[in-house]
Every structure is written in structure tokens, then in C-alpha cells.
Amino acid sequence: MHAFWATLLRQGLRRGGSTGPPGxxxxxxxxxxxxxxxxxxxxxxxxxxxxxxxxxxxxxxxGPTTPGPVLGAGWRLAVSVLLxxxxxxxxxxxxxxxxxxxxxxALRVVLAATAVVVVGTLxxxxxxxxxxxxxxxxxxxxxxxxxxxxxxxxxxxxxxxAGILVAGVGNRLAIxxxxxxxxxxxxxxxDGLELVNVSDAGMVQSIGxxxxxxxxxxxxxxxxxxxxxxxLIPGLALGTVGVAVTAGVTAIGTMWLLGAPSRLAWLxxxxxxxxxxxxxxxxxxxxxxxxRVADALRLESGVNDPIAVLLTVGLLSSWDAPSTAAAWIGFxxxxxxxxxxxxxxxxxxxxxxxxxxxxxxxxxxxxxALGVAGLAYGAAVAVGASxxxxxxxxxxxxxxxxxxxxxxxxxxxxxxxSGAEVGLFLLLGLLVSPGELPGVAGxxxxxxxxLVFVARPLAVWLSLTWFDLSLREMAAVSWLxxxxxxxxxxxxxxxxxxxxxxxxxxxxxxxVVLTSALxxxxxxxxxxxxxxxxxxxxxxxxxxxxxxxxxGVDVAEVVVDADSSVAGRLxxxxxxxxxxxxSAIVRGExxxxxxxxxxLLVGDLLVVTTADQRxxxxxxxxxxxxxxxx
Length: 630
What we know:
- The chain is mainly alpha-helical.
- Helices cover about 65% and strands about 5% of the residues.
- A five-stranded antiparallel beta sheet has the order 1-2-5-3-4.
- The radius of gyration is 32 Å and the shape is globular.
């Protein structure tokens, strides 16, 4: 459009005669010349004969002999149809006229659109007036149409755009997105600018669950075999023992410091005990830490939800009538074991569908994968298991078993996950009333202090002291365990249960989440630098596949890491398996043409072509790692 405005300015100056080459047409003359040429094209004899036949046909069909509301109005309909056809022909002629001037081409597009819109509006209005037998003096009000979704859609789209722009600013300023989204939600909410009013905790809970399903599925898709092997046991320890210890220490500290009733203190401790994938995963994309620290945090945020749900639901269920130990054990076992079975089965079934079913277009495979995520959650919940854990496991299995579709699925789900993160924290910020937070500030700050400085470090030390992690690495795991959307969603369960203290619990939990994002999120980078931990090691050597369906081949991308057997070797000596062709090597900003004398270095991105669409990715990964190719 830059050329279009330049053309308008140029022609306008020529019209004024103050500047510009002499003899050039002015803006008005240019518009008239274009319209005149297009009109001559539109009134071509053959076209006009065709239009005349159509007009006569309309006049005969809807003329005086036609009963009904259009009686005697055939001539008006005929004129409307004629005007419409002439406008369309004129617009078509303008669009088909060739020119090398980009500005003139854009001007013709604008003229064509204006002709269609103006004449089309007149034609449609005339047709409606005839059909309804309306006359100009009979119209007393403007016609309009609106749907119930119109305003929510407008507000939601505006909030999403604002949230994404805020996220961009926060990324440049190294501010956690969750903190900015929560702040934006509170700013425009009922206690702020009053632009949006959200008071339905049940709706927020439902939307929060959907957003968490997408975020956890994306986290599962990004957990490859190496990360799973390194972080599985530490993550499980943090997600089980760590959550229980965190809940207990937080509850005891709340009782001692604040004199809170035991059941209310235990409920608060259970709700804030789990870290949150929606807060932790974006933080790990910004703060680089050693792989085993990042892997433990990723796995913890994916698997710790069932224990937090177990504690929260169990406490709420036994609020008036205490449950037996057998009931607690049975509930916990079903949550964990059921989620493991359902998530694995649904993930494997989804991978089988992605591998075997021909959907005709590549764009449908990510949509199918998203449906698999929904099935994993729904099926797990239907049998009483943890839907969140099932979704996370389904993502891991699907990514491992369907590597050819992993790239496209991750791009699609990753984009949805980013949007879900924005929408979720915005919505949570809208739900809270900032005016009520000062009343619980003292209590919430005390709970936050116990959680961050006592409960979390103790839980991390008890969970990870058995593994080969240094004290500095355990300190990093402790400080980067942010609280986020999951505790707030769990707090809405108190509303659903009718608990009298639900409002206080929610405000305290929200304040704890806000404090976590503000204190831990803002200081994450300085703390990691202070601990002297190295940046995250190179990529794990996982293979990304780009299927070329029409060519019948796959293009694989794999990064040479420090543990790779081909690192430092000549390509001719690396033992490239039969059926694989190294097509390119991306080294920094350069793209190298592979030769036998090219030495493979750590960090090189290898572009490998394979015709084996079933086992090609496996062979590429085995070759880079030095495993036997079978």
C-alpha cells in the first residue's frame, strides 16, 4: 500500500500544479480516465445484450403478472440487477488491466472495491425494499442485526491482541508473561477500568482446564526420549514426595505463624503445592539452565498435578466427614495408575492413526492430534484418573511413536499453547478483585514466604538428594518452581464445593501466585547467574521430520551434540547408513554443501534425506548417537 499512497500524493500534487512533472494527469482526471476505460469495457455490446436478456427475464418473472409482495415492482428489480452487473463488469475490467506501476495497480483495486461495495449496497437495499414492499417514507428506524457472541468475540479478540503485544514487550524487558497477563487482567477488570466483568468461577475453571490441557499436551510433545530418561525419576520424586512435603510444610507454617485452623491451612498448602507448566515451561524458554535441571522441572510440572488434585479433592470431600485411609489410597492409585494406562493407550492409538491414516492434506494431522489430547483427558476423567497427567503422557507417547508428524503437530499445538497461556492468565486476572487483596496481603505474604523459602527448598532437597545433582542445581530447581494457573484452578474447586472460606482461600492463592511470578519470575536470570550454572547444553540429538508427501521422501533435521559419536569426525568416516543422504550442513549462519572431507562439529544442524518413511527418523537418530542401525 506504500506505492498506492505515493501515487495518490503524486497525482494530488500534479493536480495542484505546485510540483511534479508538467503535463501529468491530476488525481481527479486519473480517476475519471480509469473509470471511463472500465465503463467502456463493461458496456461492450455482447455484455450488454447478455445483461439485457437477464433484465428482461427478471422483469417478466417478477413483473405485474407475478403474485405476491413484488407485484408490479419488476422494473425496479430489473434496474437493480442491471446496475449490479455493470458494477461487477466495471470492477472486473479494472482488476484485469495490466500495468507496471504498483501504485496505479493498487488504485485500480481500490476503485474496483468501491464500485462493488457502493453499487452492491444500493442493489441489495433496493431488492430488500421491493421484497418487503417498503417505501422510503415507511422507514422509521435503522435495520441492524446482532448475535449474542458478537461483543464477547470482539472483547476476547481485543484482549488476545493486547496480551500478545504485552508479551512481546515483556520478553524484551525479561519480565515473565504470566505476571504481565495477570496485571493486564486486573487492570481492565471490575476493580480497574471496568472494561470486562468476569464473576463466574465455574466458567473460569472450565476455560482453565481447556487451556491447561493444551499447555500440558504441548509440554508432552516437547519431551523427547533423552529428556525423559534424564528427568523422569527426579521429576517423579518432585511431583509426588515434593508436592506432599511442600503441602505439609506450608500448612504447618501457616498454622504456626497465622494461627489458621488446621483444615484451612492444609487446604491452602495442598492448593499451592504444585508447580505449573503454564508458568514453568515459558520460563525455561527464557532462562537457560543445565539440561538435567530443566528436564527435572519440565517433568515435575507435567506429573505433579495428580498429587495436588488428590490432596485438594480429598480435603474438600472430607471437610465434614473424614475419609478413611483406604479411600485416600484408592483415590490416589486410581489417579496415577489410571492416568498412566489411559494416557499411554490413547497416545499410542493417536500415533497409530497419524502413521497409518491418509487424511489427504497435511493440515488435518495437527487437528487430529489435538483431538487425541481431548480424548486422553476425557477418557482419564471418565474412569476417575488424572486427566492432566494423561494428556501429558499422551503427548510424550505420540511424539515418540509418530516422528513424521511431530514437527507439524508441535508447531500447531505450540501456537495454541502460547495463545492459551495468554488467555488463561488474562482470565484469572479478570476473576480476582484487586480491592480485596490488601485485606489478605499479610496472610498471603506469610504463606508465600513459608512456601518459597522453607517448604519448596526442603521438598527439593528431600526429593533430589538421592540423585546426582549439586546443591547449586537443587537451588535452581527450588527457585524456578513457579506457581501459576493450576493452583488458581484448584482454588475454584473450593467455590464449587460451597466452602464458606472459599473467597479467602482464592484471594490468598491468587496473591501467592502473583508473588511467585513477581519475585521468582523477575529474579530467575540473576539467581541463575549468581549460582554460576552453565547455560543449557546443546540439543539432545532428537530428529525433526518434514514429510514431502508428493516426492515420497522425508527430510530430517538433527543437531550434533557433545555426546554424539559423529562429532569431530569426517563425514566420510562417520558411517552414514545406506538409505540416508546428508543434503546440507547448517553451521551458524552458513549452509555447507556436504563433502566427504567435511568435519562434523558440535552444534551442526544436519539436513538428511531418507526414503524410508517408517524407520528413517530412527535410523538418523541411531547414526548420530552411534547406536547400531537395524
